[in-house]
Amino acid sequence: MSENTVVSTNFIQAIINEDLKAGNHKSRVHTRFPPEPNGYLHIGHAKSICLNFGLAKEYQGKCNLRFDDTNPSKEEVEYVDSIQEDVHWLGFDWEGRMFYASDYFPKLYECACELIRRGKAFVCDLTPQEMREYRGTLTEPGKESPYRSRSVEENLDLFMRMKDGEFADGSRVLRAKIDMASPNVTLRDPVIYRIMRAHHHRTGDEWCLYPMYDYAHPISDALEGITHSICTLEFEDHRPLYDWTLLALGFEDRPQQIEFARLNITNTVMSKRKLRALVEANLVDGWDDPRMPTLSGLRRRGYTPEAIRDFCERIGVAKSNSTVDVAMLEHCIREDLNERGDRAMAVLRPLKIVLTNYPEGQWEELELENHPDKPEMGTRKVKFGRELFIEQEDFAENPPKKFFRLAPGQEVRLKSAYIIKCEELIKDAAGQIVELRCTYDVDTKSGSGIAAGRKVKGVLHWVAAADAIDAEVRLYDYLLQEKEDEETEDGDFMSDLNPDSKVVLANCKLEAALATATAEKRYQFLRQGYFCLDAKVSKPGKPVFHRIVSLKDSWGKQQNK
Ligand code: ATP
Ligand code: MG
């Protein structure tokens, strides 16, 4: 049965290929993506989604979406909805196989009773403090609980009464009876059920007894017929417990747990707990703040699912933890947007120019290509006239050497238009430059052929006053100043937050074509980067754009060295 194998580019495909050859798991591939609905998905989850759904696709198998909602205190419906939306947006579908671990509560309870009947679980009355003392250390074995030898009858009776709410929260637990001397601490009679009076988002107050993740997960996998249960490295030590649980219960077709390295990215945080802390402290504008590494944040920022999938493909799947440079993610979105982004002109910090030799009240229309290499993307019209805007930083009163932009007496070309020369500066009472008086050379119109005779080094983007729409533009930087998200002693990553991660430019001038922008349409603003409309904060007549990514590609450059 090897006709299904694919060329393996990672160790998980190699494992699956071997399984298929050996006929393991009835030669099926069935994976699952099991988020805990306690926050929005982030790009780390995207790695797991692409891997699990990707493998299912490659091997013509299946992938389930399962909400791992065994822990009642945190889950919320808002998260359940956002997770579904994000998985779909990334381009994957669970084909109706969406499950909740909480659906298995009755079954999980039954399995626990079965473990008791098989003499493999017991009710323990040790206090949490005593339990810690009995557990031992990495170098010393643990000590058996005095309750370990309770009879099956007594255990069954107590466990049922735990379920029926006879005992206080935390007063008793159900533990697997494995091995207190095991060098693997996970196997030292781990707790598998605890009493906890908490409202559950789906089962309400039906249960006051909740299963632990390590116990619920393998059984949920087995019940769904999962073959390869892929999780992150921190569960490696838990794998023997995963296997023990399924063996102890006599499951025949047992899924196999495979661990891979979780994704970390420089200059950001990548845990729901930390992301939630940012949201709750109002340090960001919600889970979908364009600076957030959440999928909803990246989507709002203007990232495409294609770019994120490409990124997940490139980072690969390995068995040792590492941190990926955020520049690589940016490289992926740049490559995508370079292809699909319409070119446009936008002046972010406007400086007014008056062309003194251009007739008043007159203007002309220029036709500009939307993409330099893609004529099929069409053209657009922009106005050119007496009053224009350029970037403040494109003018210097006292230019340094090799300043090829505009300066007194100096010439530049206005992109796709004419060569202009700066003749005079107008300053306000405070000495600030408020306007430049320039002349344009009517014989240098771009594309007219005549211009070839005269070359100037600088080419500037511009917007005509007759055409301009007013907009706010936001420029984003990284959330963290340091590359590594290193937790300080008191766990305070907040001290490393970048205070300048959001810069708001309120008075920008954009070319008229941008009036029809939608959130889905991405643009390259010439010389400024890739931008899109932020539909969430835009208002009629007051559009807000933000930068998806700048043009400077530090990662791509490194690769070409
Ligand atoms: P967090 O610490 O952010 O809450 P988690 O692992 O607790 O992460 P879950 O909702 O339990 O989040 O994760 C769902 C799936 O996504 C799991 O299989 C988990 O291994 C995977 N996953 C979570 N974070 C990452 C990451 N950074 N890289 C790769 N996979 C991840
Ligand atoms: Mg978790």
At a glance:
The protein is an alpha/beta fold. It has 13 helices and 27 strands. The structure holds adenosine-5'-triphosphate (ATP) and magnesium ion (MG).
Number of helices: 13
Strand content: 15-25%
Low-confidence stretches: none
Q: Based on CA inertia axes, which overall geometry fits?
A: elongated
* Structural category: alpha/beta
In what order do the strands lie side by side in the largest sheet? 12-25-26-27-23-24-13
Number of domains: 3
CATH topology of the largest domain: Rossmann fold
Percent helix, as a range, is 25-40%
- Biggest sheet architecture: 7 strands, mixed
Overall number of strands? 27
Q: Write the CATH homologous superfamily of the largest domain.
A: HUPs
N→C terminal distance? 45 Å
How confident overall, as mean pLDDT?
95
CATH architecture of the largest domain: 3-Layer(aba) Sandwich
* Hetero groups: adenosine-5'-triphosphate, magnesium ion
